[in-house]
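Thread: quick sanity check before group meeting

JM: Hey all, I'm pulling together slides for Thursday and realized we never actually wrote out the predicted structure for the chain we discussed last week. Dropping the sequence here so it's in one place. If anyone has concerns about the input, flag it before I start.
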Amino acid sequence: MAQEIELGLDTFGDIQAGPDGQPLSHAQVIRNVVDEGVLADQSGVFCIGLGEHHRPDFAISSPEALLAAIGARTTQIRLVSSVTVLSSDDPVRVFERFSTVNAASNGRAEVILGRGSFTESFPLFGYDLSDYEILFDNKLDLFAALLKNEPVTWRGQTRPPLIDQRVFPTIESGTLKTWIGVGGSPQSVVRAAHYDLPLMLAIIGGDPNRFRPYVDLYHRAFAQLGRPVREIGVHSHGYVAETDEKARNELWPDYKKMRDRIGAERGWPPMTRAEFDSEIERGSLYAGSPETVARRIATTAKTLGISRFQMKYSAGALSHEKIMRCIELYGREVIPRVRDLLAR
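JM (edit): ok, ran it. Output follows.
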């Protein structure tokens, strides 16, 4: 039986370079992201995921507003946050905003909730990083209650209680699909199972197979709870061009600058070309020709048993023109190849 998989794309709205090599404005990048989402829809991509950040190198701070703009110009593509930093937001407002996007798009909205690997939002919105764990625990508990789409009575440590509180707009049919984003915490894996939510693994480096223990833990947790296991997805970086050589040569300069800039904040050494090539060949960077990228995705899908793969296609200053070609190749050539490989 063929393994079913949903294939999507992600972006954080990385600040792109214009034709003159200078950085585009945040406003122009946001307009470009809308066009990228429209092309993804036209190219048969299942979902577009937008990640929340509050720093100068990424333009997207309000994924749901931008998803609504994409939704207004598309008809099929699912509209996903990748991720929403729930710890520094209000669960009720998050639910209301995504419920609104869901209504406007005829049921296409999804939210991936995470604690955030970048922490700029905590001081920006008045939260103490020492409360990192309790904030997410409490807010996820409330959000899970809201997903029932009925009046909520809830009490926690991070906000005033709610008593028989209704929240609007309600979900018209079904539920608001909600994932838990996990970067490497076993506790987060178990938490996703506890709340009966799908799991999105952020695999941004190294052999994807090293995440197999998290997949096994997720399955064991559901077995102990006596419930059927939910979906598992993977988010990883990638880039598609006509040939392997072209993909590597186009991606390398901007990917290195992005990786070194973030790495410097985290104490990582600068990336070498050998490390870059190794990450493509044996790690979690899905860069190359459509055939190469499809083969790598299919291998990861089989190894981890996932039902969704979301490739982050933006990489630092990588130009909008290159990104648009990458999106088209991903939708029209990579996706059919992956499905063919998984059907064998």
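AS: nice. The chain has a mean pLDDT of 97. The CA atoms of residues 178 and 296 lie 27 Å apart.
JM: adding both to the slides.
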